[in-house]
Amino acid sequence: MTLAWIAIGVLLGAASLLAVVRLMRGPTILDRALSVDVLLASAIAGIGAYAAFHREPTALPALLVLSLLGFLGSVSVSRFVARRQVAQTTEESGKGERG
Amino acid sequence: MTHQVIDWIAVGCLLTGALLSFAAGVGLVRFPDLLSRMHTAAKPQVLGLILILIGIGLRMWPESHVGVLVLIALFQILTVPVAGHIAGRVAYRTGRVRHDLIAVDDLQAELEGDGGTR
């Protein structure tokens, strides 16, 4: 049993580290937003594992908030990229309309 | 006795969820382009999270907080596809997708069909 708990912790930590590797390597901003999403998923899983280990329901509201707000980051980054691309194409060609 | 069995099932669920998280991390580092990375990243966000929530509920048996857990799963199921859809759409339309890796590309024909204004 203890070994299983340790394995859960190690796997989640390794997942976070790999997500951070992708976060640093990029290459585009969308890749980074995606890896932040995965980092957040690992964090949710980690808090959940903590709550399960200690049988402690006080961590559940935090999970609720994280699962609600987690997608705001990637959505806003995506919208930002789209808008910047539209601005660039309209500057360059005067008629570009790709969003 | 029953408690022990339920605990083992809960730990199994949590372990599978953690494994999915780890697989997503490996996929993020190993996969070649954004769309395939999005494919691997969605696994822990939905299936992994639901497995972890099942594990939490089983560990807190008999007063498992089913309402909050179902609410968490519901919010995640509602928000993850929205984020994935918008990220994929922006990635395709700003040319951050490797076209040599796509086997069938229906969207390309659609975009060319109406002059790329959609």
TrEMBL record, chain A:
Where does this one sit in the cell?
Cell membrane
GO molecular function list: sodium:proton antiporter activity
A cellular component term from Gene Ontology for this protein is: plasma membrane
Topology versus the membrane: Multi-pass membrane protein
In terms of InterPro entries, this protein maps to: MrpF/PhaF-like
Q: Where are the transmembrane segments?
A: 6-24, 36-53, 59-82
Keyword annotations? Cell membrane, Membrane, Transmembrane, Transmembrane helix, Transport
Pfam families cross-referenced by the UniProt entry: MrpF_PhaF
Q: Does the keyword Transmembrane apply?
A: yes
Question: Which family, according to UniProt?
Answer: Belongs to the CPA3 antiporters (TC 2.A.63) subunit F family.
Q: What is this protein called?
A: Multisubunit sodium/proton antiporter, MrpF subunit
Q: Recite the lineage of the species.
A: Bacteria, Bacillati, Actinomycetota, Actinomycetes, Streptosporangiales
From TrEMBL, chain B:
MF annotations from Gene Ontology: sodium:proton antiporter activity
Instruction: Kindly indicate where the leader peptide sits in this chain.
Output: none
Q: Which UniProt keywords apply?
A: Membrane, Transmembrane, Transmembrane helix
Transmembrane helix is among the record's keywords: yes
Pfam families found in the cross-reference section: PhaG_MnhG_YufB (PF03334)
- Highest taxon above the source species: Bacteria
Under PANTHER family, the record lists: ANTIPORTER SUBUNIT MNHG2-RELATED
What the record says about family reads: Belongs to the CPA3 antiporters (TC 2.A.63) subunit G family.
Its protein name is Multisubunit sodium/proton antiporter, MrpG subunit
Q: Which organism is it from?
A: Marinactinospora thermotolerans DSM 45154
